[in-house]
Write a structure and sequence with these properties.
There is one protein chain. The protein has a six-stranded antiparallel β-sheet with strand order 2-3-4-5-1-6. It has helices at 2-8, 24-38, 101-117; strands at residues 10-20, 40-41, 53-62, 68-80, 83-94, 120-123. Strand 3 and strand 4 form a beta hairpin. Helix 2 (24-38) packs across helix 3. It is built from three helices and six strands; from the N terminus they run H-E-H-E-E-E-E-H-E. The chain has 124 residues and is of the alpha+beta class.
C-alpha cells in the first residue's frame, strides 16, 4: 500500500552544478565533510570505476520542521588539475501541501558547498 501511495505522490527534484577552483582530492574531502554533517550517509554502488569521479549520497530532512526526507546526491568530477565540478541533486516526495523540499535543500547545500570550497555556481 505504501509503495502505491509513494508512486502517486509528486517528486520535487532540483539540480545545481558548481565549479570549484580546487584540486579533486581537496574538493572530495570538503564535500564529504559538508554532506556528512548534514545527513545520514547512504551506501552507493559505484557506477564507474574511474579515479576522477566520486558519488556521495545522504538522506537529510527538509520541508516544514525537517520532517520530509530528502535524498541529496553529490557527484564530484575532476575537470582538470586545478578545478573540479560538483553536480548536486536533491529529491523529495511532495504531499498534499507543496513544500518544494528538494529545491530548497539543493539551494541550501549549494550555499554550504560554495562557502566550504569557494565554488562558482555554473547552473541549476
Amino acid at each position: 500500500m505504501v509503495r502505491l501511495v509513494a508512486r502517486l505522490m509528486r517528486k520535487n527534484v532540483h539540480e545545481i552544478d558548481l565549479l570549484v577552483p580546487l584540486p579533486f582530492d581537496d574538493v572530495l574531502r570538503r564535500v564529504t565533510s559538508v554532506l556528512g554533517k548534514a545527513g545520514h550517509a547512504v551506501a552507493t554502488v559505484p557506477v564507474d570505476s574511474r579515479e576522477d569521479e566520486e558519488t556521495i549520497r545522504v538522506v537529510t530532512g527538509g520541508g516544514a520542521g525537517g520532517l520530509n526526507p530528502v535524498v541529496v546526491t553529490a557527484r564530484v568530477l575532476k575537470a582538470d588539475e586545478v578545478s573540479t565540478e560538483v553536480w548536486l541533486r536533491a529529491a523529495a516526495k511532495e504531499g498534499l501541501i507543496r513544500q518544494r523540499a528538494g529545491e530548497k535543500t539543493a539551494v541550501r547545500f549549494a550555499a554550504l558547498l560554495s562557502e566550504a570550497t569557494g565554488a562558482d555556481r555554473a547552473g541549476g
